[in-house]
Amino acid sequence: MPETFKNFIAGEWVAPRTGAYFENRNPADWEDVIGCFPRSGPDDVTRAVASAQRGFAQWSRTPAPIRGEVLHRVGDLLVQRKDAIARAMTREMGKVLAETRGDVQEGIDTAHYAHTEGRRLFGRTVPSELRNKWAMSFRRPIGVAGLITPFNFPLAIPTWKMFPALLCGNAVIFKPAEDVPHTAHLLVEILLEAGLPPEVVQLVHGEGSVVGKAMVEHPEVPVVSFTGSTDTGSVIGATCGRMHKRLSLEMGGKNAMIVMDDADLDLALDGVLWGAFGTTGQRCTATSRLVVHERVHDKLVKMLCDRAERLHLGPGLDAQTDVGPLINEDARKKVEYYVDVGRDEGAEVLIGGERPTGKGFERGWFYKPTVVDGVRAGMRVEQEEIFGPVLSVITVGSLDEAIGVHNDVKYGLSGSLYTRDVNAAFRAMGELDSGITYVNAPTIGAEAHLPFGGVKQTGNGHREGGWEVYDFYSETKVVYVDFSGKLQRAQIDTESQ
Do 17 and 155 share a domain, yes or no? Predict the structure, then answer.
């Protein structure tokens, strides 16, 4: 019998009030049941909010450097258990072990970076316009933060949200994606072992349409951070706007890698293979479009197809595997749909474009790495997020045209340019309409001490990571101290005083 897991609410591991559970299965082998997890309901969220408010009352009064020490211990525990967590994550989510180890490493880096910010929650002291008056600002926590996270980075993305929120003194309610509840369970166990007061973190499993919705709509959850689809983000945005909540949205991408005719093609080849097919294309930063100069198109595309066809498809726990399965059946059906759309639009599938056959593939959500050529700007496969191992190739004749193609989508997360021309590189930095630009590197990757996020329909202006996220999870309070011993009136003509 598979293990039955629980929510963590009010300092205890508890069954859901609904009494209902869902199965968590290995996407490489759906007969492998990892466990049964709570299919929670609004009552579970209500109880979690009440507990989180008690946790906030305690945690917000804890000095920030001490909060940072707890997170440093979290990072140390992640170091100790890195391989075990990575293996559990690969079994649950499907990507190869090298990537899940990297996922854990991002959590480690985020924990240790958060620790240092416990001594750097800077305010400002500025001169007052009046005599014998002190003026300053400082940051203070907000309250209960509701965190809704996706499947593709089961540990890293929750830590991007959770650790800054906790460092700033907030309590958190954590709703992980239904596809990756086990990694979330392991993370909360580590937080508790590191000494986080139990009511400061709540883990509520369940469907986004039920648990996520109840959390977003709860009046006592003033801060919400969501990573997921643009459509869902729009619904959450409407609710949070109506309820005057602070909201951070990290949503879709349709990232392009531009390769100019002076580029190092071997370097570009390595980059596009990693960018397009790493994590089976299931990254918001995945290289979904290859915008290549006509002079090098034929050579680079041949190199690409030769290498991509040799990528080993299989379970992520197999040391020989380069590309694992998609997360679930719906994800594979979506990929198949878009490949058919591309064919209907007149594009040519050069490699892939189908499920693999044979022993070992029949019980998993596998799909071959796919390269689609002859894609024109404006085609649906060039405009819409697929979230799978499908690369669309668009041919251009100049840098101006490449920048235009890059920018002519509704998303703006990440973009890259391969060139030896320093002038072109600096143009790309300024003109590529994205939150992140890489020069001579693929579109994927992030560092914990730098802000992460995009423009247009990728986000709503806030950033994960780096120094900016600490502003999101804290409020600025301004204090004036008047020690003049008399009434001084600001914004009054001072010559009359």
Answer: yes
Structure tokens at 424: 């072109």
For residue 58, which of 142, 171, 220 has the smallest C-alpha distance?
171
Bridge partners, 323 (sequence order): 313
Same domain, 385 and 428: yes
Catalytic residue among 284, 382, 385, 464: 284
- Per-residue model confidence as pLDDT tens digits over 75-116: 999 999 999 999 999 999 999 999 999 999 999 999 999 999
pLDDT at 162: 98
**128 lies in the same domain as 265:** no
Can you give the pLDDT at residue 486? 97
Q: In the annotation, is 250 catalytic?
A: yes
Q: In this structure, are 341 and 280 located in the same domain?
A: yes
Do 232 and 299 lie in one domain? The reply is no
- What token pair was written down for 162? 């959770």
Structural contact between residues 405 and 292, judged by C-beta atoms closer than 8 angstroms? no
Q: Check residue 480 and give its pLDDT.
A: 97
Q: Is a pLDDT exceeding 60 seen at residue 494?
A: no
Q: How confident is the model at residue 493 (pLDDT cuts 50, 70, 90)?
A: low
pTM for this predicted structure: 0.97
The tens digit of pLDDT for each residue in 162-216 reads 999 999 999 999 999 999 999 999 999 999 999 999 999 999 999 999 999 999 9
Sign of CA dihedral 197, 58, 207, 317: negative
Separation between Cα atoms, residue 290 and residue 297, nearest integer Å: 10
Residues 224 and 346 in one domain: no
CA–CA separation, 490 and 497 (whole Å)? 10
Q: How far apart are CA 489 and CA 468, in angstroms?
A: 34
Q: Round to the nearest angstrom and report the end-to-end CA distance of the chain.
A: 81
Residue 27 maps to which CATH number? Answer: 3.40.605.10
The total of structural domains in the chain comes to 2
Do 183 and 92 meet the contact criterion of CB atoms below 8 Å apart?
yes
Two tokens at 57? Answer: 């009352």
Range of the domain at 72: 7-251+459-478
Catalytic residue among 106, 250, 382, 385: 250
Q: Do 170 and 259 belong together in one domain?
A: no
